[in-house]
């Protein structure tokens, strides 16, 4: 539900992966997601992603924690 408005308002997006590990049917990553909005503002979030991998190699479940790196107005 939140993806459509985000796609409409984001002009550019970068993802910088800092750490990524996998093993025993699990994956984890720490990355920074930075979006440039059509308004000219920049939004940055630090993301911690944890996932479970199904037997066929597809992601079965993802849990993410995010922390805003953009100062509040």
Produce the secondary structure layout:
Layout: H1 3-9, E1 10-23, E2 26-37, E3 42-53, E4 59-68
Describe the structure.
This protein is mainly beta. Helix content is 10%, strand content 66%. The chain contains one helix and four strands. It has a four-stranded antiparallel β-sheet with strand order 1-2-3-4. Strand 2 and strand 3 form a beta hairpin. The longest helix has 7 residues, at 3-9. The protein is elongated and about 45 Å long.
Number of helices, counting only DSSP H or I runs of 4 residues or more = 1
State the total count of DSSP E strands: 4
Main sheet overview:
4 strands, antiparallel
SSE order: HEEEE
Q: Mean pLDDT, nearest integer? A: 93
Unreliable spans: none
Instruction: Give the DSSP E fraction (strand runs of 2 or more residues).
Output: over 45%
User: What proportion of the residues is helical, as a percent range?
Assistant: under 10%
- Form type: elongated
Physical arrangement of strands within the biggest beta sheet: 1-2-3-4
Summarize this structure briefly.
The protein is mainly β. It has 1 helix and 4 strands; from the N terminus they run H-E-E-E-E. The two termini are 25 Å apart.
Record keyword descriptors for this entry.
73 residues; mainly beta; 4-stranded antiparallel sheet; 1 helix; 10% helix
């Amino acid at each position: 539900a939140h993806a459509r408005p985000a796609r409409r308002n984001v002009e550019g997006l970068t993802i910088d992966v800092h750490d990524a590990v996998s093993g025993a049917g699990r994956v984890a990553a720490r990355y920074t997601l930075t979006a440039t909005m059509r308004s000219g503002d920049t939004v940055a979030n630090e993301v911690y992603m944890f996932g479970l991998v199904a037997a066929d190699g597809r992601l079965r479940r993802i849990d993410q924690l995010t922390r805003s790196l953009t100062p509040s107005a």
